Amino acid sequence: MLEEKLIAPCGMNCGLCISYQALHHELAKKGFRKKTCVGCLPRSKNCTYMSSHCELMKKGLVRFCYECGQYPCSRLKSIDKRYRTKYHMSMLENLESIKTLGIEAFLAKEEEKWHCQKCGHLICCHSGLCLHCDLDKLRQKKTYSWDD
Fold this sequence. Notes:
single chain
């Protein structure tokens, strides 16, 4: 179940991140050495991607980037382009959805969009795999990505 605290100010859904899921699924106990993370907001980082480039974000003065007068800034556009191209996710689309629909509707939409068809857990945006039931694919190729 996704929680609001897993949505970073930049629009990243930390619940879909390989580092968050590695921790959540205890991949270290299953023989995988992956960096782990509890999410940007839960670890008191306003946003891993943006806080070093944005004073408002660094000081926690905005909850989401769309609240900033410079939205969307070049840094956010760059990250969004990389995520759309490599990971089938858009931070800008996420932010627009949150702004338009509200956070609860956005979370429900994300749950539906990113759930595994086999088991119902969330798939990882970085690999396209469900780390609950697709671990064999990850064992075969530790750097598995969407295009593999």
